[in-house]
Design goal:
GO molecular function: DNA-binding transcription factor binding; NAD binding; oxidoreductase activity, acting on the CH-OH group of donors, NAD or NADP as acceptor; transcription coregulator binding; transcription corepressor activity
Number of domains: 2
Largest sheet: 7 strands, parallel
InterPro entries: CtBP (IPR043322), CTBP_dehydrogenase (IPR051638), D-isomer_2_OHA_DH_cat_dom (IPR006139), D-isomer_DH_CS (IPR029753), D-isomer_DH_NAD-bd (IPR006140), NAD(P)-bd_dom_sf (IPR036291)
Helix content: 25-40%
CATH architecture of the largest domain: 3-Layer(aba) Sandwich
Mean pLDDT: 93
Order of helices and strands: EHEHEEHEHHEHEHEHEHEHEHEH
CATH topology of the largest domain: Rossmann fold
Keywords: Oxidoreductase
Family: Belongs to the D-isomer specific 2-hydroxyacid dehydrogenase family.
Low-confidence stretches: 340-345
CATH class of the largest domain: Alpha Beta
Structural class: alpha/beta
Oligomer: single chain
Distance between the termini: 7 Å
Number of helices: 12
Protein name: C-terminal binding protein
Strand order of the largest sheet: 8-7-6-9-10-11-12
Length: about 350
């Protein structure tokens, strides 16, 4: 069985060969430096399965080039960079790995909140630039008491729920908005529920985003939503960059309605200095100092999570091709009945 790992990025996991070396042969194709790069036809034609390692890069080939492919796996949670409908029309299931970095992302969301509301990022920067004059407890602009503050969550899935539990441990009031969950979830979790984004915006002291990217969620945090925000809101995004209209966020932060933001993801990655918010942050403009913390789409990462992610992606493929059992399929609505899967030798 030949598995093509497209858009691969380091670090490599040598344990994959130890675990699966006798069951699969891996063909590694790294993220291309040239945006116009096209995957070699021979590689795509030889693959029995494909893993797309990147959360943002598309597969650098046409679907028709993958003649033998029987399953595609996104090595991670998000799958908005895969053609679900196109693969489904060919009878090829697309799956993801939803259970590898849940705790890491939830931890990271809380860490971004704390970096702003406890001032750790600001204190470090000030002390680094001037250890004497920077020795001041009052120069971090967003420090506040978290006990009793409202932690709002958009999307109470696996990661959202994990973040909720962590916020509750800080004695915060947890409120969520998720129109896709059935009635009664609030009873089983013990968290409060609201039924509109604007209501959640209006009561949240911290708003943490944990929704997937979709037509429904793209641009969800826009000028209208931010206009409804409780003054002093801290926004945290560890989900997908395009969920937030970054120009609208700039305006809301500039006029003071939004106090600060911790962003692990951006609409364009890496960070694009042509965007007003990024330009102001990069220039260290006085008004934004201590109010914006960025990280490089790293919320998912720990060495252990990376190994889990890579292993689980391969296990998903082997389970399907060898046993016919499909797990974590994300394109069922488009999936025509695939040809009977033959056990791979």
């Amino acid at each position: 069985m030949r598995i093509l790992k497209a858009n691969w990025y380091p670090p490599e996991n040598p344990e994959l060969l130890e675990l699966f070396g006798s069951k699969a042969e891996f063909d590694i194709d790294p993220i291309p430096a040239d945006p116009a790069y096209r995957l070699a036809r021979a590689r795509s034609a030889a693959a029995d399965a494909v893993i797309n390692c990147s959360a943002t890069h598309l597969l650098p080939a046409d679907l028709d080039d993958f003649e033998k492919v029987k399953i595609v796996v996104r090595e991670g949670v998000g799958y908005d960079n895969l053609d679900l409908e196109g693969w489904g029309a060919r009878g090829v299931p697309v799956c993801n790995v939803p259970d590898y970095g849940t705790t890491e992302v939830a931890d990271h969301a809380i860490a971004l909140m704390l970096a702003l509301t406890r001032g750790t990022d600001t204190y470090d920067r000030l002390l680094n630039s001037d250890p004497v004059n920077g020795w001041s407890f009052s120069r971090a602009p967003l420090v506040r008491r978290l006990r009793g503050a409202t932690f709002g969550i958009v999307g109470l899935g696996r990661i959202g729920l994990a973040a909720a539990r962590r916020a509750a441990a800080f004695d915060m009031r947890v409120v969520f908005y998720d129109p896709h969950l059935s009635n009664g979830v609030e009873l089983s979790t013990g968290y409060e529920r609201v039924h509109s984004l604007k209501e959640l915006m209006s009561i949240s002291d911290v708003l943490s985003l944990h929704a997937p990217r979709s037509a429904e969620t793209t641009g969800m945090i826009n000028a209208d939503a931010l206009a409804a925000a409780k003054p002093g809101l801290v926004l945290v995004n560890t989900a997908r960059g395009p969920i937030v209209d970054i120009d609208a966020l700039y305006d809301a932060m500039k006029d003071g309605r939004v106090a600060g933001a911790g962003l692990d993801v951006l609409p364009q990655e890496p960070a694009d200095r042509s965007q007003k918010l990024i330009a102001a942050w990069a220039a260290n403009e006085p008004w934004i100092q201590g109010r914006l913390v960025l990280s490089p789409h790293a919320a998912f990462y720990s060495p252990a999570a990376m190994k889990d992610m890579q292993r689980k992606a391969v296990e998903c493929i082997l389970t399907y091709l060898n046993e016919g059992r499909l797990t974590n399929c994300v394109n069922r609505e488009f999936l025509v009945t695939p040809a009977k899967v033959r056990k791979a030798s």
